[in-house]
Amino acid sequence: MGSITLKQVTKNFDEVNVIKPLDLEIKDGEFIVFVGPSGCGKSTLLRMIAGLEDTTSGNIEIDGQDATHTPPAKRGLAMVFQSYALYPHMTVRNNIAFPLKRAKVSPAEIESKIANAAKILNLTDYLDRKPGQLSGGQRQRVAIGRAIVRQPSAFLFDEPLSNLDASLRVNMRLEISELHKSLSTTMIYVTHDQVEAMTMADRIAVFNGGIIEQVGTPLELYKHPVNEFVAGFIGSPKMNFIAVPQSEDKKTVNLGIRPEHFIISQEQGTYKGTVGVIEHLGSESFLHVTLECGTTVTVKADGDCPLQYGDAIFLSAQENKTHKFDKNGLTIKTTL
Amino acid sequence: MATTNSRTLARFMLLPSVTLLLAWMIVPLCMTLYFSFIDYNLLVPGEKEFVGFLNYEFFLTDPAFFESFFNTLLLVTGVLLITICGGIGLAILLDQAIWGRNYVRIMVLAPFFVMPTVSALVWKNMLMNPVNGLFAHFAIWLGFDPIDFFAQMPLFSIIIIVSWQWLPFAALILLTAIQSLDREQLEAADLDGAGPLSKFFYIVLPHLSRAVTAVILIETIFLLSIFAEILVTTSGGPGYSSTNITYLIYTQSLLQFDVGGGSAGGIVAVIIANIVAIFLMRLIGKNLEG
Amino acid sequence: MTIKDSRRSKLIYTIAAWTISGMIFFPILWTLITSFKTESEAISATPALFAFEWTLENYSDVLSRSPYFNHFWNSVVISLGSSLLGLLIAVPAAWSMAFVQTKKTKHLLMWMLSTKMLPPVGVLIPIYLLFRDFGLLDTKLGLVIVMTLINLPIMVWMLYTYFREIPNEILEASRMDGATIGEEIFHVLLPIALPGIASTLLLNVILSWNEAFWTLILTAANAAPLTAFIASYSSPEGLFYAKLSAASAMAIVPILILGWFSQKQLVRGLSFGAVK
Known about the structure:
The structure holds three protein chains of three kinds. Chain A is an alpha+beta fold. Chain A has two domains: 4-232, P-loop containing nucleotide triphosphate hydrolases (Rossmann fold), CATH 3.40.50; 241-334, CATH 2.40.50.140. Chain A has helices at 42-50, 92-102, 107-120, 136-148, 166-183, 194-200, 218-223, 228-233; strands spanning 4-13, 16-26, 31-35, 57-62, 65-66, 77-80, 154-158, 186-191, 203-208, 211-216, 240-243, 254-257, 262-265, 271-280, 284-291, 296-302, 312-317, 322-325. In chain A, the strands form four sheets. In chain A, strands 6-7-8-3-9-10 form a six-stranded mixed β-sheet, sandwiched between helices. Chain A has a five-stranded antiparallel β-sheet with strand order 13-17-14-15-16, with no helix packed on it. In chain A, helix 2 crosses helix 3. Chain A is globular. Chain B has a single domain (53-288), classed as Orthogonal Bundle (MetI-like fold). Chain B has 13 helices and two strands; from the N terminus they run αββαααααααααααα. In chain B, strands 1-2 form a two-stranded antiparallel sheet. In chain B, a hairpin with a 2-residue loop joins strand 1 (38-41) and strand 2. The radius of gyration of chain B is 24 Å and the shape is globular. Chain C starts with a helix and ends in a 6-residue tail after the last helix. Chain C is globular. Chain C has helices at residues 3-34, 39-42, 57-65, 68-99, 103-116, 124-133, 140-164, 168-176, 181-210, 214-218, 226-231, 241-261, 263-270. The mean pLDDT of chain C is 83. The longest helix of chain C has 32 residues, at 3-34. Chain C contains 13 helices and no strands. Chains B and C meet through helix 1, helix 3, helix 4, helix 5 and helix 6 of B and helix 1, helix 4, helix 5, helix 6 and helix 7 of C.
């Protein structure tokens, strides 16, 4: 079991309020990602769930039991840290055995659990090495191994991939996702990288300034962001925001169009603009287009897009793919 | 970044250190303060009368105080001057590519590990002795009269001995600081056409300023309390010519048994040290934040 | 600059460095050499550097005529005892300050350092009188107490700087793994910090070994460590150069060797972290 319920949880550091009253229900077996810019409170909340930080007010319930004041060791959770936090003086074997020894598991059982975890994580050949002799990816796997042997009710990941290089990150992303599928244990995963959030999550919670802006499945957030912040944060490259002249529409202040939702034309369209830098990625191209109103937008085009720097083009949005935001940045619901 | 639990525990773990240091600092200091206001001589049993600032008056107007205050000042500044200048020179030299740098380092560092009584006696007897000392032999060999160091220039001799002990410390700290200098800065200066002198004055010296300040302050704290070197070489003499404040207080309290006067002197010494300490704490405090 | 030029400048620097460091080291070298001379050779007007008859007589004289081993043992007990006792008190304090930082931590550290800056003469009389009244004068226990207290700030400070380099996440990981606070300190913190703890211990042994204010004032025949023993050579025995040298050599050589091992940590410990 591994359901976690946060009820009106807040956190103050001295006088500074970093988490505003917050409710969240995490279902058993769910992979939930906390995403947001740095300093938004996502890591703090994770550490509060772990018990590494006090909760200023409100309740944290794990499997229906109030765990607000339970010390971290007694919560039955496992955590994978950004720096891996491996014990540098212990071999991989002892690193993985550490939580089991603390739990007074019998030596024979420890051996079999280590062997099992090592097999899953491809660490069998490295069990007698020290962390210093491992690559970043291997260290990451040891950290995960240390977490899974305890069979925790939930895994907490604190930006676990941010110290890895780009290609390794993609691999580890897949490995963690696969691990989730095979263990089907609750996982809470903190990241500032929205690609990680989109690719791994069952549900995403978007954090900003100590509050959760929106919780939903990746596609919900992509298709129906509740406000400008979520709209801008989810999706890569970012959504374009174009100011709407006040005369046209009383309520709409900004129009949001994702780069992939533009129609490019040489003859006609809603917006006239000049092509600036073009980034050719092979499979696709990103055009940076300066509109007549002065706004620069990013436009996704085909990989073999023939346009040149300085070309004049017209852009329009695909039907029903625009997002309207009012003066408070909130999405104006359109009836679809 | 912690929980209430760990904070409570942390307070508990700090308790022994804090209590002991508090006791070590406050209790004796208060006693010293108390003694400094009473007439208390270990040889004169009986009444311990409250005498107000009389002890301070006696201590501060005693010509011996002026002489030893001046000696303390001379001792501290003399040693600082020698160790800082010598230390910078040594640090730059040791920073160069040389053969056997490790051995050189070990030799330079060695005097710091020699206990003060040994270094004072070795210098006094084997090097500076006017009859059998090595310096005397050397002077005679060169055709000069040997110098009777501790009779003719007692304080200067002590300055030499103490400088020899502290030069390694200054050199080592300054060498560490020099080695932390960004080589690219010097290479950029090379490209800008800077000569060795301007590189030294505009890049190396400013870079060292922090370390030099640290050396000055730390050495001062220790140099104010120089004791063993004086005790085993001159015993403060001839007269008071090599007595510093620490030694003066020692003679007053434990040789003349004047607890009141010695205590007043102790409080004066604490005040002087505090003035230095304040500057040192500021420097370290800045470092703590960075 | 050509390769030849740089070789030449390296040669010049090398000669300069060896000459100067040789001069600095000379008094120690001379002491070591003299300790192997006969007394008459030692005061000879034409002192010999190596060409003399080497003898171990001075060492056997010092060892047989004075309770040298007593004093040596006192030094060992006082310096090692105070350093170990200090560690016992300082490790928990340094743990607290390094891993459970509050706004007060910095002030506390500064205050601890400030006690180190208190001149010993400021507390000379009370300590002397208290020691007299409690029967601690001229006892090893008394000196262990004093040495522990005067070096405690440096120990806390050094350990603090070492502990600070250990990522908090590792300790948090152990907490998540179900370790109690004791297990956290003994299985995780101490093994990782072992090199730092060892050098803290080493530096404090050196400092206590060489301390020459309290050891001279608070001891007489019984508990006197080597500092006080050597001071007794100030006169007239000091004129027996060879024996003085032998006694001195035996007092400084152990600590010279320890010191050379700890030279890197020395900077950090003695500058209170102001220079790293």
